[in-house]
Amino acid sequence: MRIDVATIFPAYLDPLRHALLGKAIERGILSVGVHDLRDWATDVHRSVDGPPYGGGPGMVMKPTVWGPALDDIAAGTGPAAVADRLDSAQPHVDRPRHDDLSGADFTGYDTRRDVRDGEDGTAPLLIVPTPAGVPFTQEMARAWSHEDHIVFACGRYEGIDQRVVDDAAHRYRVREVSIGDYVLIGGEVAVLVMAEAIVRLIPGVLGNAASHVDDSFSDGLLEGPSYTKPREWRGLEVPEVLIGGNHAHIDAWRRERSLLRTAARRPELIEKLRLEDALNTDDEKILADAAPRPVSTDLNLLITPGEWRKISRKLGRGLERAGYLEATVHAEEISLSCEPENMLVAQFMQAEGHAPTSEVLHRVIVNGVSALDLRAVTKAVVAQLPEDTYWYGTSEEGHTEPGSGATCAWRP
Q1: Within 10 A of 103 (CB to CB), how many other CB atoms are there?
Q2: Of 182, 270, 331, 342, which has fewest CB within 10 angstroms of its CB?
């Protein structure tokens, strides 16, 4: 594959010489040319921009510079003919990569090339990064990994004169693309992102095909969590299923984690797979079992009012991180005159040897939604309490109204 990049900051593209792309350059899989747009400027100041018609802030990049630049890059003429091609930043060809040692044959994805009706399939692909473009996706990266020649046009300021894009369609297959719903200073960062996403999918760039066959989005889902040695670290352990050696169980676990992560973080991807009929019965059962449903936790706590006020300020955030969502918390103090033989008070006296002094009995009701099992729901609440807190209670499906089942101490 040949990649050409037109920019006013050629040094910005130096990362294309490093790591996997640098290895691809060494192996002859990839050739990269970076062109200084100012080489096509015609005035003494080598200016590439002008004020926008109709007024407004900023400057617009000139068609009289961009047009000749794209003409020459497509034809390999003018300044483009003598532009240097990037070399690898560090030699790699004489060193085996860790994934070469267990390589897998890969001949490329069967995704079709991105050629639209009326386009010349032999024309280079011109990619123009712009916040106004269509979102860049893994599907695009797969299709573009089949290209022989890709040209990136890096805009700056308020962008490139639209006539440049319109005119380029006579010599290129033009795609205006965005890498996210945010604005960058220029297109160079977007080029680095897209170039790596595309080139890594070319056969021979990755030594082990599984490195991208199992990628996030390879099957329309986000990739699940990954683990390596040590088995236990800072009290956190690798899931037992990954250690047991049963590959069928491991594959099932990874599929489940992938489905659940995607449903939680990118639910629109799940809906897309449903429209494509790409989820099987087992997948749907996993998603149904994990769907958040209304839950309620009803606890009695023996805690000082000051401690409770401190906890309650951050309780919602802690519960959300634990998977207890949209939580509302209701708490009231319980008078011991109503429950003189309360179990928590008895436990406290047995353990401490005296009656509670500053500790007060509280009833706390939490209503929310969660995909956790009920035991885990209770644990999620208790985990937010000080470690030595005396408590009892449980969780159930549905919501509990404050004051329901209350003793004489409950004040709505």
Answers
A1: 16
A2: 182
**SS3 state of residue 73:** helix
Distance from C-alpha of 79 to C-alpha of 352, rounded to nearest angstrom: 85
Do the annotations mark residue 245 as ligand-binding?
no
- CA atoms of 30 and 350, how far apart (whole Å): 75
What is d(CA 83, CA 201) in angstroms, rounded to the nearest whole number?
A: 26
| Long-range contacts formed by 13-20: CB under 8 A, 24+ apart | 13/86, 13/188, 13/191, 13/192, 14/86, 14/89, 15/192, 16/86, 16/192, 16/195, 17/86, 17/87, 17/88, 17/89, 18/89, 18/90, 20/196, 20/199, 20/200, 20/205, 20/206
53 is in an annotated binding site: no
Per-position pLDDT tens, the chain of length 412:
999 999 999 999 999 999 999 999 999 999 999 999 999 999 999 999 999 999 989 999 999 999 999 999 999 999 999 988 999 887 755 565 555 544 445 566 667 899 999 999 999 999 999 999 999 999 999 999 999 999 999 999 899 999 999 999 999 999 999 999 999 999 999 999 999 999 999 999 987 655 655 555 668 899 999 999 999 998 889 999 999 999 999 999 999 999 998 988 898 999 999 999 999 999 999 999 888 899 999 999 999 999 999 999 999 999 998 989 999 999 999 887 666 678 898 898 999 998 888 999 999 999 999 988 899 999 999 999 998 899 999 999 999 988 765 555 444 3
Q: Is 390 annotated as a binding residue?
A: no
State yes or no: 303 annotated in a binding site. Answer: no
Distance CA 33, CA 155 (A): 17
Q: Please tell me the distance from the alpha carbon of residue 317 to that of residue 324, in angstroms, as a whole number.
A: 9
The tokens describing 74, both together, are: 């497509």
Tokens 């091609």 correspond to 85
> Among all chains, which residue has been given the structure tokens 């100041």?
45
> Could you give the 3-state DSSP secondary structure of residue 117?
coil
- Is 283 marked within a binding site? no
Is residue 43 a known part of a binding site? no
